[in-house]
What we know:
Helix content: 10-25%
Number of strands: 19
Low-confidence stretches: none
Number of helices: 6
CATH topology of the largest domain: Purple Acid Phosphatase, chain A, domain 2
CATH architecture of the largest domain: 4-Layer Sandwich
CATH class of the largest domain: Alpha Beta
Radius of gyration: 19 Å
Distance between the termini: 49 Å
Order of helices and strands: EEEHEHEEEEEHEHEEEEEEEEEHH
Shape: globular
Mean pLDDT: 93
Amino acid sequence: MRTLSFLGDVVLDKAYGVNVPLDDFIFNLEHPLSCQGIPARNKVNFCAERSFIEKTFGKMPLAVNLANNHIADFGDAAFLKTLDFLRANEIAYFGAGKAQDNFNNPAIIPFEGKHIALLGYCCPSTNAIFGDENHFGSAKLMAERIVQDINYSKKKADLVVINLHWGAEDIRYPKPEDVKLARGLIDAGADLLIGHHAHVIQSFEKYKGKNIFYGLGHFIFPYKERPSYYDGDKFLRVHNPKPSKSNREGLIVYLKANENQPDYETIYFDDFKVRKVKAWIPRWVPERKSPFRLYRSLVHKWRLINHFIDNPRLPTLSMLKRFMGD
């Protein structure tokens, strides 16, 4: 019996190694497979001139999630070239497109005698480019829309799996409002929720017998300098992130057609290859805003302190305001 694996964020600027056995797999494709087009303004933009998927994994994925904050970074032309590649290689895709095709939700895929409906949505907090009637982009995360898609998908498939690109970056726990939404989607009929975007592994919980993985973290995500914040004429900054150990960890969710509950394990990407490791998986699921805000504020201050230690200089009024803020 084959296993279907759900992976986190994947960015491939070249071929990498994967020292993890995978049968069929699905991941969050975090960039267009083309750099042709005009960069989106005032953000960090990702792209790759060609695909390194097969060289990295040794085979193609069953499907990819496109609902994220980078898939439309280079506009319609790059997005269409990405779809051309996916169709040519018989890779299902979902979560982005135009309003008239419902952003390619759902993708219905056969797996071990069953059909699985895949749905993808992206939270506005991620600074994503959203599709509409005229331009391609991600499906915006809206509860009413998702419930409608769940109801439609339940008629077409045996299982409904929702991918949500959401969460605060580098924060280990989901926002209380995301917890409320996730549980509401299970109540509406979803069978499994897969989250990503936060750059770290987030909490996992079982709610009414169904599994919610709030954030899988990265699978392959190289941290490199990138020209960023295009103003329509030039890039204004160089984005040069410094990853921590937790930024290199990820979670794989395994689903077997003959089993009701998924399994999972943790991995580590060392800039060259992905391998299995033991990593901590958070279990606290905050339901109230005040403790979550306190935790997020402490993480924010800790980051600023570390940044100051690495780059000591006389604090400005702006820096002090950032430190004292939430």
